Amino acid sequence: MIGSIAAWFTDPANWQGPDGIPARLLEHVEYSVIALLVAALLGLSLGLLIGHTGRGTFLVAGVANSLRALPTLGLLILVVLLLAPRISGDLAFTIPALLVLVLLAVPPILTNTYAGVQNVDPGARDAASGMGMTGGQVLWRVEFPCALPLILSGGRSAALQIISTATVAAYVSLGGFGRYVIDGLSQHDYAKMAAGALLVAALAVVADLLLALVQRYVVSPGLSGRYRGAAVGPQGAAARMGADNPAAG
Amino acid sequence: MNWTWLKANAGEIAGWFAIHAVLAAVPLVIGLAIALPLGWLANRNRIVYPPMLTFSGLLYTIPSLALFVLLPGILGTQILDPINVVAALSVYTVALLVRVVADGLASVPPDVVQAARAMGYGEFGLLVRVQLPVAVPVIAAGMRVAAVTNVSLVSVAAVIGVPELGQLFTEGFQLYFYTPIIAGIVLCVVLAMIFDATVVGIARWLTPWRRAGRSA
């Protein structure tokens, strides 16, 4: 079993051409990055808007919970059948599949952005407006940086959801590592399926580690506790804001 | 919607619905049974906590289709064996619940624990009669996520040919026929709602004092 999987990996034929590992990796990463960027754009702007204004909160709770219950496979197949005949050329199956990837990735980003902004210490927000910041400045200089840890963990969940669903989407003829699983199944080639599964699992783990690293270095040191002597957590940030400004004490 | 087709296949669909429910429910029970002692250990022993959470986070990262394919190789089962689905979803449930149980136990106020100790509760009695009941709302919130996620993930197994509601999707795709796909999505959502309501109901039943506090 392990021998046949190792043999699959060491076969040079599996490392070149349009069905080779580098080509499939590139496809999988390409779909995932495009879907994540679009989802981040939508989820961030909506989440910041809802969190900052407090309007449309019903949208957050309702959409996020009901989308989790939707079966991803059913959604993929339904959207592909609906849209594929209306799109011509090579992208007939790619665009509908990407659409579903985006649809599934928006909720975690949206809800975490909203929750992150909502959870910002009211004291920090008040202090910012008291210092004369406009609504937009409060949003970008206080609420957004304070919400960033939660936003980024939403991004991590979204990325995992995308990589996982992109694998399933090989069933509706999307490229990427899922191809090995689906093609291996129809060819009764378990080594190929297992290799595909291992590659996808490795990709997911590496992507999650990379995003964890980003999270570590992008989040303000005052929030993450990397700032010398600072207390950890949002309360720490609020305390620091107070400490930096004697009048607020 | 083609109602004639639905009527003609109602028996088969009902069977898939039942299998789907079992495949999603059994891992919840197994997962909770494994996560409880692990979460207790992680909460009690702060050295175990970080590596255990890192490991369960890692398990949760693995895409479901990959796990469905890899488990037969690890367990020595056939690729179509429903055991693979149950095992894979149990892994996810444990991975999700270990953190929830540990955090739930940690959320029990220290003075409650001290009061219980002063009343003479032993380690096991303290856990079963004080800490776990107080942690029920937190654990139930995690169970709701796991329950709804499991229902959705079971349908993915149809890609490798395990018969359940996901079969409606693959069949609809092959026949270019919308009725089974829409029926499958609706039934999956209904099943998820039933699971969610069941978890909420059990949690309410386990915490009568929360209701009493509200009505008083």
In short:
With 249 residues, chain A is mostly helical.
Give a description of the structure.
The complex is a heterodimer of chains A (249) and B (216). Chain A has a single domain, classed as Orthogonal Bundle (MetI-like fold). Helix content of chain A is 76%, strand content 0%. Chain A has helices spanning 2-10, 21-53, 57-69, 72-83, 94-118, 122-130, 135-168, 178-186, 190-218, 221-224, 234-244. Chain B is built from ten helices and no strands. Chain B starts with a helix and ends with a helix. By secondary structure, chain B is mainly α. The mean pLDDT of chain B is 92. Chain B has one domain (3-207): MetI-like fold (Orthogonal Bundle), CATH 1.10.3720. Chain B is 84% helix and 0% strand. In chain B, helix 2 runs antiparallel to helix 3 (49-61) and helix 6 crosses helix 7 (123-156). The longest helix of chain B has 35 residues, at 10-44. Classes of the chains: A mainly alpha (249), B mainly alpha (216). The interface between A and B is large, with 38 and 44 residues.
